[in-house]
Amino acid sequence: MYTAWTVKHKPHSLPEVVGNSNAIQKLSKWVKSWEKGVPKKRAAFLYGPPGVGKTVSVETLANDFSMELVERNASDYRTAEAVEKFAGLASQYGTLYGRRRLILLDEMDGITGTADRGGVRAAIQVIKEARCPVVLVANNAYDPRFSTLRRYCLLIEFTKPTVLQIIKHLKTICEHEGIEADDQVLKFIADRSGRDVRSAVNDLQALAQGRKRLAYEDASWLAERDRKEAIFKVLQTIFYSGDVWEAKRALDAADVDPDMLFEWIYENVPRHFTDPHDLANAMDALSLADVYRGRIRSTQDWSLLKYVFDFMTAGVAVARERSKLGGWIPFRFPERIRIMGQTKGLRAMQSSIGMRIKRRCHISSVRAIREVIPYLQIIFESNAEMAAGLSRWLDLDEDMVNYLAGGEKQASAIMKRMG
Amino acid sequence: MSFEMWTEKYRPQSLDEMVNQKEIVERLESFVDARNIPHCIFAGPPGTGKTTAALCLAHDLYGDGWREHLLELNASDERGINVVRETVKTFARTRSIGEIPFKIMILDEADNMTGDAQQALRRTMERFTETCRFILICNYSGKIIEPIQSRCAPFRFSHLRREDHDDYLQSIIKKENVKMSHGGLEAIFEICEGDLRKAINTLQAAASLRREIDTETVYSVVGRANPADVQEMMKLAMKGDFIEARKRLRDMIVRYGVAGSDIIRQIHIEIFRSALPDKWKIKLADVIGEIDFRMTQGASEEVQLSALLARLGEAGHEIERGS
Prior knowledge:
Chain A is an alpha/beta fold and 419 residues long.
């Protein structure tokens, strides 16, 4: 039978809840205070991003304190009868059997539009008459709709747990399920979830159920796919929306590395801006974005980053004036990054020769690569004797001589003269 | 045949051996006479003797053991703030042994230092003036922050004059027994534009071919040392093949390490040599100048230069349509 791990591995008592210990402590203290009579605030309003454990905290708290949990969510707030019936429950001190009640109004964000305006009013009504703790849960307590409601509530913020806390939780689940999982893969899942515990557990289940071992390779394809999809979406918007705001928002909305995105835009602009005038303007926008990147680099003033974003998104978007909208043109992986990867060995060689030159010639290794190596290559290719002398003087090793000589035969002639 | 780079073998050791920058050398010699120097900025184009002047100054000031009183750092290799915090400070704060109470710190290519590092340097310069004098070397003094500039005596180095250039190369030619035609020397000056390092490297590479150096030899050496076929790249761009043009550009920069400033200089020359309508030459000069400036500010030379290629494509398109 399929059971969701989010349910199967739900915490049973408060210490098992991932993160938010301060918020949970505040909540338990407030619930305990009811034992000494009705407190000033009859309701607690838990708010915070999805999947951080708001609802589950309330449920485990009820369990730990052996209270009866009465739970309602968005769909129940609509009709007048439901609210009244509910208010009735809340106004009673306890259950017939002496267990105390805890009222949970979940998914308050679900109350939408004018049709539901009664919902918030009804909630206030419930709170006003409550004789037992009422807990409200929403993502955003500062929504204007809740302005009156907030006055009656103790506000408790839930924040995202740390990646480490999530990893620990995932580890516990793996132990229970008898799965051996790499730390790396758990970290990857935790990172990818955006620190949403529920989504992390769902991902873990999708990847690991039925396995004995879970390695990073089993999950890494997800990363590649995520990145590409996110980048494609942003590119599509920047290249074709023609809208400054949408283009800017596309970057905000997507969780992609801006430097990487810049490379993708830079690679693909010429394939999508086919009119020479449009292309020149789009490239001009990227050039300006790059100027701000340079200024950030030299001043370390990161507040300039917003201008980089302006030009690489909106600046490119408005460049489209005459280019035809052809059919679907696939987005290509940045060639520049591929080449940098391919030429890594070459550049490492140049840079180590550059360092040797620097030691002798009072110039930076960067400059040596540009201004000295090309001449050395000519000398090494055509004059073994001079090359041998220079190799000794610069203290070059065999690989370096090989590189500069451009061929085995000449290199060995040089090496022979070096002795 | 000699076994050193000639740029080092024939680098002047003391100020009186320097052939150019007469006014600067005179002022530096007066520092030596006074046995005291202020913080200095040496600014000017490459290969005009900035580093040499700094080394000579140290040599003349301290005599034989001069190297012990000197630290040479290159900001292109060590540009971050940590270098200033650690290496520079450690060197600057300890007192020098000997009759001259301060040491000299040469910061080469200082225009490549980050703003942060420059700020840190400014404080270090102030605190340790007693024990250490700084010589900052750069191509553009504009990239040095104002507070540092105001603490330094500025020296502006200019391109070598033709006579100085020829004299210097002639003395090397004589000592190394190189056969050189008159045209060869002229070609070197024309191509290297008074950049003595480039000129001497060209001379040594040409000499390694073991034949008389004439105009043709010089051009073939320089051509091989600068494999950038800028002309071909421009043609592709103007024809509208931006993607291929950009690929060529990338090869020059990534595979051959050609400097963006060299590429744009060549583009500028080619535009005026070309058969484009005069009106367009001027329009494009404006674009080239703008991109040249942005390159000094920006992060990636390739991005800047390909923006220029796209403008060339736009120009090519409009010229074709006859506007």
